[in-house]
Amino acid sequence: MKELPVTFKCKNQQIVGIIHLAKKNSPTIIMCHGWGSNKLGTWQGLFVKTAREFCKNGFSALRFDFRGSGDSEGKFEKQTNYTLLDDLDCVINNIDSEIGLIGHSLGGKVSILKASLDKRVKCLATWASPALHRDVWPKAFIEDIEQRKMITYNNVGSGINKKQVDSYLKYNAIKSLNKVKIPFLIVNGDEDTIVPLSQSRKLYKNANKPKKLAIIEGANHTFLNKEKELIKITLNWFKKYMKK
């Protein structure tokens, strides 16, 4: 098992990632982080823990920074749903093995959209991912961004602007699910106050089979102190549906 830095080019900008190599030609699980996050997944390194556990079980794993996040080039304020999809496509273009996707929060919505468009994706898992941003964001927030055009958030050192918000509101993950015909695991914590469990229930209701909704009791949006349970559920799903 090796952990190696990798870089990719997308729109003449560099994407930075870490690949966890299991063995030659093993399936590669690509991990997509959420809004304002990076290739660690969460502040407690959820993606790192997941990638290492998957690698021990015969899967390679790739975690990367979308452009405008982490170590990748680009500006956060230019990051939209369109750029995220472009980035994921550029990453997938560099993988020559069977591909699965794991997406956390916004990264999960992007993963659903990509799986609906790309037959190279063979298995999918989302963690605490929105079905519709309009349901997740308060009406007052949407109205505020319409008036102010930009709202600053200290946790990402930047802000979210109207162009970004419009791109996230435009894409409807539920409609995209009609075209997702691969095994789909949906995981949410019952104490998630950022992307509530109701969003995962909507995804599950509209998804094609095979599908599974796993609810982790006591888990918040980052699955703090529930990482082992989350990883076990997800790993078992990929073991069931992807050849090693």
Describe this entry's structure for a reader.
- The protein has 244 residues and is an alpha/beta fold.
- The chain has a single domain, classed as Rossmann fold, CATH 3.40.50.
- The chain is built from 9 helices and 10 strands.
- The protein has an 8-stranded mixed β-sheet, sandwiched between helices. Strands 7-8 form a two-stranded antiparallel sheet.
- Helix 3 links the parallel strand 5 and strand 6.
- Helix 2 packs across helix 3.
- The two termini are 15 Å apart.
- The model has no long low-confidence stretch (mean pLDDT 93).
Please identify the structural class as seen in this structure: alpha/beta
Helix proportion range: 25-40%
Any idea how many domains?
A: 1
Radius of gyration: 17 Å
Any idea what the shape is? globular
CATH homologous superfamily descriptor: Alpha/Beta hydrolase fold, catalytic domain
Indicate the CATH topology: Rossmann fold
Q: How many helical stretches?
A: 9
DSSP strand count: 10
CATH architecture assignment: 3-Layer(aba) Sandwich
Quick tags:
10 strands; 8-stranded mixed sheet; 9 helices; Rossmann fold; two-stranded antiparallel sheet
